[in-house]
Amino acid sequence: MFFEHAGIIPRTTRLYLQVNEVKDQMLSLANFIVRRAKFVLFGFIGLIALSSVWGFQVFGNLQGGGYDDPNSDSATVSELLGTEFALDPAEVIVLVDLPGDANELNANGAPKYFELVTELSDDLAKIDGVISVDNYYSLGSPASLISTDGKLVYVLVDLQNGISQSVPTALIIDEFTGDYLGAEVHIAGFGAVAKAITETIEQDLIRAEIIAIPIVLLLLLFVFGSLVAAGLPLFVGGLAIVGSFFVVWGVSEFTDVSIFAVNLITGLGLGLGIDYSLLVVNRFREERAAGNSVEESTVATITTAGKTVIFSGLTVALVMISMAFFPQYFLQSFALAGFTVVTLAVIGAAIVIPAQLVLLGDKVDSIRIFKRKLVPSDKGIWEKIARFTMRRPLPILFVTILGLSGMFSLSTDAVFGQVDDRVLPQDSPASVASNLLRERFDGRASSPIEILVQGSDEAINDYIVLVQEQPDVARVAIVPTAEDTAWVRINAITLVEPRSPDGYDQTVSLRGLDSDLDQVLIGGGGAYYTDSQQGIEDALPLAALWIFITAYVLLFLFTGSVLLPLKAIALNVLSLGAVVGVLSYIFQNGHLQWLIGEYSVTGTLDTSSLVMVAVVAFGLSMDYEMFLLSRIKEQHDAGMNTENSVAVGLQRSGRIITAAAFILAVTFGAFASSGVSIMKMLGFGIAFAILLDATVVRALLVPALMRLFGDANWWAPKWLKAVHKKIGLSH
């Protein structure tokens, strides 16, 4: 091996190296980076710069939906409405708030506002992509299309199938929202809500970055003391974000990707890019302060901190993949975004940063703002916390587990729902329009139960009567069509919130009705919600199994222990339970709005968003577990007993873990400023989970449990020890 023969590897590092394939690869990587530092650095920068040409086009491709199961009955109904009825089920609903009663007559005995509504309908019909426009008057003045006060009427705009979220919807919103011949026009419907979500998130993302980046820079300056050293992690975070935008843009050219993916890219790219770089830069500065040359320090950094970053990032990336098991492209988008940005953050920290360090050398400490001690000490606040905890492990465990259990108990009344217009700010035009539908109409005519049936006329009529008799069904009617199809379309107007537990129960009840029909398919908002919840429920065991097996195997390969991976998974599950409880207390029940800003309280938690928060939080928890265990194991491999290894390991990693946690909490916490409530929940939930893990779990529970387990922490059966010796990692 080049570095060992050349004397570049420090003696202390050589003591810990075990020659196996993985370690040879790490040394080969170090060899290449030291000799080709300029090529590595500028080659990577060039690739990212080139990818940015397309990457920043990603915003135009992303969608505001993705919460439904595409393989469900409700999705089949949606598809049939397009293929059999030439309709897009996500039609645009134009609400016309008239100056007076819609049924008021003029001097000629005709409806006073007939011409106004008709002219509006004609103007709407001129927009490309609109295939039909109907209104309250043209449909015979049905009661379902007029508000209870008689002043607000429907204009229904059907769009060419598959484009409701794009150009026609945008044109209708931009051209017709507001005053029209003395009437006030509001635009509702799924397309309007999706457009509003997309635009709001784009604006919120800019605000979050404006909030986060200056705070993060100040934290980095405080940790490193040097402006140059503080700038390196920000550099890696930026590269990871831009590169991920390019990958997601490429995928979005072929399939739907959620707009929320960019938020995860920004949060994880900035956060993990900085976290991993913190670990690498800090280790390099320690090695230099210990008297090693720049080349020696770089090799030592790659074979220790670099290895930790790679294994940690691999764990987080594989945990992110678990979201691909769910059928909703909302969650699949997070799997893509998470895996991509973590991979690029690892490449940046483990490869690009060392190349920069080779070129910078001691200039990494240039432009010093604060004076910081570079040589790590085995004594300090974190060592004292560890020893305090290990002197009384049982009381510490009892108090902390009791506290976490108390937080979890807040979730005992958790009710799960799904994204709808109420995630938007209350003053958003789409939210205002949706609230008009909710407050001024009798029933949810804007989101009917879509029923497609095949059978005899008698069976169809009997079925309509049966549906009408069900609780919370206001009206049921066949919808006429000019299309030649074997399907009959029935609309049922519901009195319950479709995407809610009540909508779930109603859908299950309707699907359970006994009829003589040949085929019955139930669609609409309630069915979408029901099928989505069922899809998540069906995929959850497989996703959880993937996470647990992946985390266990990688932690075993990292530590050689059978017990430590079990401990890590158990503590992560415990802290996640506490996070779910706090999220339920805040976002379901509406508490602490003074802290995180106002939002619409729906009495439910969005299931998909909660899954995403849990997966990301679990992955990041494993991240910090590896940060801490790498230092503890390094001391244990050097001959220290378990108690001293934990104390010294926590002392040497505590400052970096805490700094990394605060930085990640800031990057995600900035999303809590979003006007979209699920982004607010995502930002606050992940930030809270990170801080809880870095303080209570890493500083208290880990030392306490490792003290109780003693030498059993490092136990494994002989055959597993042989496996670890062959393919595992050690310092």
Concise overview:
The protein is of the alpha+beta class. Helix content is 63%, strand content 8%.
Can you walk through the features of this model?
The structure is a single chain. The two termini are 16 Å apart. Helix content is 63%, strand content 8%. Strands 2-3-1-5-4 form a five-stranded antiparallel β-sheet, with helices on both faces. With 731 residues, the protein is of the alpha+beta class. β4 and β5 (183-188) form a beta hairpin. It has three domains: 2-65 and 195-419 and 531-727, no CATH class; 91-188, Multidrug efflux transporter AcrB pore domain like (Alpha-Beta Plaits), CATH 3.30.70; 426-530, Alpha-Beta Plaits (2-Layer Sandwich), CATH 3.30.70. It has 24 helices and eleven strands. The longest helix has 35 residues, at 190-224.
The shape is elongated
* Low-confidence regions: 1-21
Distance between the ends: 16 Å
How can the largest sheet be summarized?
Answer: 5 strands, antiparallel
- Mean pLDDT comes to 86
Q: How many DSSP helices?
A: 24
Tally of discrete structural domains: 3
Computed CA radius of gyration, to the nearest angstrom: 30 Å
Structural class: alpha+beta
The percent range for helix content is 55-70%
- Order of neighbouring strands in the sheet with most strands: 2-3-1-5-4
Report the strand count.
11
Binned strand content: 5-15%
